[in-house]
Amino acid sequence: MSENLNGNKKEAVSFFRPNPVLRRMSQIADRAGGNESATYAGIAVKTSFFLAVTLAGMIVYLLLNTSVFARDTVLTTVHYGKTFQFDLGKTEAITLAAVMITGLISQLVGIFARKTIPVTGSIYSFSQGFVISFLVFKVLQGYEYLGLEALLLTAAVIGVMSWLYVSGKLRPTEKFNTILMTLVIGSILLALFSFICSLIPVTRPFIMAMRANFGLCVALDLIGIVIASLFLISDFGEIDRCVKGGYPKSTEWYAAFGLAFTVIWLYMKILDLLMRIVSEKNNK
Which of 32, 242, 244, 266 is buried most deeply by CB count within 10 Å? Predict the structure, then answer.
């Protein structure tokens, strides 16, 4: 522990704070001083803003899908799992790829250039909304209800994790963050190993067999959901530090985007699991 210029104790910064956006936020050394400090209400409003932008991305896709994409020339028919099948047009494919790449770039820029988060965070949220709408209303034609089910389950998980944090049953201690980062790194290494093996002719059949194994895929999806859920605890802890530590008002944007990022990620993981279960069920 060390002390800042105001004589207040400052927590040591740990390498193992999982959320990259919030970890960058916690590296800010100075405090608000005479300026207005961050508040829970301010963070809540800005988190709602990012989620509203996500909704806007969904609406834009729907508008394009009923106009521009509806007149598009079919490029290919895509099979997603054993149940879902859809026609993908050239314009739609190019637009979707551009949106996804733009979202990825904006996410990376926001992580390393904190002051851009009001803009880059909005671009990222919009891109994710666009992709979510594509999945729900194009890939899941006839099964759009899965999008609503994923939303309700996401809200339920957030509620449970909020209760666990507020009640003190689960807090982002140093050990907690270390375990969480170990799980994240392990997942990344496993995905990288799987990708490399899929490129090698000798090991490719084994990887394809693993990817076709329903039980294994569901287990991996559940692990991903658990990791995303635990990230919420880490986010709550960083938000607490932001407010109680008297961080500047501008850090509300960083905290809000970090939380919105986790919520969107959790929703996508839950939606993927529901799609996999329904696909398997319909093909028995």
Answer: 242
